[in-house]
Amino acid sequence: MTANLKKMILIISGILVALFILLTIIFIATGGMSKNQADISNINSLPINLSKKDEENIKKAVFNYLSSNYSEYNDISSENIVIREKSYSETIDNDITHSTFIIDIESKKQSFRVNYNWSKTNSKSVNNPVTVQCLDSIDLIYGKFDCLDQSNSKDDKVDPILSYLPYSTDYYTITPVRNSDGSLTLKVQSTGLSRALTEDDYKQMVSEWLSRKGVNPNDYSLFISTSVTN
Fold it and tell me: Rounded CA gap, 65 and 211, in Å?
C-alpha cells in the first residue's frame, strides 16, 4: 500500500467520522431523541393507523400531563410507558371516532386512561384530540394513588365553573375535560329523553346555564354528544 493511498484512506475515514458526529448532533437537535414526548414503547400495537404526527400528539399530551401534575417524574422521556393489552376500545359519533386506552407505568406503579378523538375525513373538525384521565379503581392494577385528573388538575381553582360541575338535567349532563394545553372543554352528553333536540339546542341551553352562573359561554369549548349509551 502506497503512502498516498494510506493518506487518502485516513482522510476519507476522518470525513466519515465527522459526518457521523454531525448527523448525530442534528438528529438530537431536531427531536430524534425528544425530551418533550413520553416514550410509549408499544404505541404501534394500537389497532388504528396512526400517522407519525398522531403518535407525536399522543406522546406530547401524556408528557405534558405528567410533567404538569406529578413532581416525581423528573425525566419522563426515560420512563417505560406501556399500553395495556386489550384496553383499547372506540365509539363512533357522526364522523368522530372516540378512541380510548390505558397506559401503565410500572416504575411509578401508576396507570392512566388516554382518550384520542379523530376524524377520517376532516381532522380540523376535532377540537382537543388527546386527553389524559384518571382510571376507575377497578382498572388500577397497582393500587390507588393520588391521581390528578385533567378535569381536576392543579389549575382548577382559577376557573369558577368547575365548582358547579358535573351538572345534570333531564336532558343532558355536563362534565369538564382538561386539555393538554390547559384549556377546558365541557362535554355535554344527551340523556336521550328528547330525541328532537339538535346540537344547536344543546349549545343554546348550556350557554344560557353558563351565563346564569356568571361566566362567559364563549370562554369554553363544547363537545356535544347526542349518542345514548344503553
Answer: 30
pLDDT beneath 50: ranges in the chain: 27-33, 151-157, 230
Secondary structure (DSSP) of the chain: --HHHHHHHHHHHHHHHHHHHHHHHHHHHTTTT-SSS--BTTGGGSSS---HHHHHHHHHHHHHHHHHH-TT-S-GGGS-BEEPTT--EEEEETTEEEEEEEEEEGGGTEEEEEEEEEESS-GGG-SS-EEEEPPPGGG-SS-------GGG-TTGGG-GGGGG-SEE-SSEEEEEEE-TTS-EEEEEEE-SS-TT--HHHHHHHHHHHHHHTTS-GGGSEEEEE-----
pLDDT at residue 1, rounded to an integer: 57
What confidence score (pLDDT) does residue 79 get? 87
Q: Are 4 and 25 in contact (CB under 8 A)?
A: no
Task: Report pLDDT for 225.
Answer: 86
Distance CA 147, CA 135 (A): 9
Report residue 223 CA to chain centroid gap.
Answer: 16
